[in-house]
Amino acid sequence: MESKGFLVKHVVDAEPLFTLLENHKPAALILDCQLKTSNGIEAVRTIRQSGREMPVIITTGNAMQQAEDEVKNLSNCKVLIKPVMFEAILEALSHLGANP
User: Fold this and answer.
1) Residue-level pLDDT at 16
2) Fewer CB within 10 A of the terminal residue: the chain, N end or C end?
3) Helix 40-49 vs helix 14-23: angle between axes, to the nearest 10 degrees?
4) Other CB atoms closer than 10 Å to residue 45's CB: what's the count?
5) pLDDT in tens, 16-49
6) Distance (Å, whole) CA 27 – CA 13
7) CB neighbours of 68 closer than 8 A, spacing ≥ 6?
């Protein structure tokens, strides 16, 4: 991602993500559906409730329709099924309007 001009910050769970968002305005988020102790989709809901609308990609190793259905109810959000190719992430970010 850095090679494409994005500054990358890494967190492993929702709470550090929320702390990061207090001080940064990212162009986009890429979250796993299963964070260390929480759910990525729930994290996005919390972020949306706070008024933030940055593009979000949710990755999941579980090709369940449920994850895609849940994300359809969230604005500016897309699900990618693992394994995810780098090009697919870039295409999704472009589709969602995220720029470095």
Assistant:
1) 95
2) C
3) 30
4) 15
5) 999 999 999 999 999 998 888 888 999 999 999 9
6) 19
7) 79
Tell me, letter by letter, the H, E, C secondary structure of 52-94.
CCCCEEEEECCCCHHHHHHHHCCCCEEEEECCCCHHHHHHHHH
Distance (Å, rounded) from C-alpha 74 to C-alpha 69? 9
Every domain of the chain and the residues it spans: 11-16+26-96
The Cα–Cα gap between 88 and 95 comes to 10
**Strand duo 29-32 + 77-81: pairing:** unpaired
Among 98, 52, 91, smallest CA distance to 75 is for 52
CA atoms within 13 A on the CB side of 32: 13
* Token pair for 4: 């494409």
- Give whole-number Cα distances, 46 to 27, 50, 83, 87, in Å: 17, 6, 26, 28
